[in-house]
Specification:
Layout (H helix, E strand, L loop, with lengths): L2 H49 L27
């Protein structure tokens, strides 16, 4: 392969990678917006539950969720 052909191939690859990178960035921005919407909805639900008089406790956000396959049990609200 000549140097010119190799350079052209590398340029094409760089262009392709740049396009892929921009597509990934756009996808991440869209996912970030979806997450913001979900977080907002969860906050609204928590507020509604709290306003109804039920006491709920949320785990600290820095704690990882348990890695068990058992469903979580709701706190006793009686």
């Amino acid at each position: 392969m000549s140097n010119t052909a190799e350079v052209d191939a590398l340029k094409a690859e760089v262009t392709h990678l740049r396009v892929e990178g921009e597509q990934m960035k756009a996808q991440l921005r869209a996912q970030e917006e979806e997450m913001k919407i979900c977080v907002g909805r969860v906050q609204e639900l928590v507020q509604a539950i709290q306003m109804s008089g039920l006491q709920i406790s949320l785990p600290a956000s820095h704690l990882a969720s348990p890695s068990t396959s058992e469903p979580s049990r709701p706190a006793n609200t009686q």
